[in-house]
Hints:
The chain is α+β, with helices and mostly antiparallel strands. The protein contains seven helices and five strands, in the order αββααβαααβαβ. Strand 1 (43-50) and strand 2 (56-62) form a beta hairpin.
Amino acid sequence: MKNIVKISVGVFSSVLILAVLSAGIYFYLAGSQQAKPDRGKEILKVKEESTPAGGKIIEVAEKRKEPIEKEFPMEMDEYEVQDAIHGMTHQKIIADDKWGFIPLTKDRVERLISVVEKNETNYEKSELYMHILNRWLKNNFSEIDKEHNEIWRLQEGNVGEATGIMSAEEEKAFIEEHYEIEE
Length: 183
């Protein structure tokens, strides 16, 4: 009988210690989340441009917090290039799920072109990246949903396949969800 009581007290003590530790971690994390100052959304400039075909495209500019060379160093590995291209497509595509968003800006496109050119012999799909980035440099986003899906497949995506391209109004609304737009 004494052994059963010792085992029961031991198990109870262990459960109690785990419960107290779990509660402590929960309240610590909850408190640290509340203690962070609300920085608000970062600010972007958004400009609507007309295409020769009569459509509209959204052009984004931002005030950089870090140099482009730090965001996209020349030593980027191939997966990082894919991730950057993938994140930028989210600004313009329709998909049920989107994980990550990087504003699609001219300076990012130009920098990625430089990175891919420098590393083309190291990247298995450098021709694909150059094809996509050079189209974007010319403000040609008519295939961006297909381009998203090509990169998404390379990354073995299984959720969030692009099903179309947003209108300029939808794109602007998407950007406003993530950033403050400067008028």
